[in-house]
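User: Show me a protein chain along with its predicted structure.
Assistant: Here is one chain, sequence first, then structure tokens.
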Amino acid sequence: MKKILLIGALMAFTSGLCFAQDNVAYKASLTKMMEVSGSKAVYDSAIQQMISMMKDGKSNVPEAFWDGLNAELSKQSVSSLTDLLLPIYQKYLSLEDIKQLILFYQTPVGKKFAEKSPMIMQESMKAGGEWGAKIGQEIAEKLKEKGY
């Protein structure tokens, strides 16, 4: 009986180690994918925008403080964001999928897509807002036609 418990505990321990190694490899690949896809640059830009907004209201704070804070947050925040995104990506994409995405983003078209994605996203959000307003207006008109 002791042997069975010992073997079971050993199997659980080694499978946990394998999972931890897989998790480390996945996180490293996800981090790389975020870099080559341009996502990291977008996150860094968001941090800079937040600091800039805070900076406007705090003119008495030295520039060196803001520079140091920006460097610190850029390093920490992207890592902590990656930790938050890790289980989401793992839920939908395998490690091999992430590796294939990295390869894609290293191609000329992948690099172009990564470079243009922020502008595409911004313009798409504007177009989506206009589309949503139009649909909302149509629904309101239909309700009015029917007397509701």
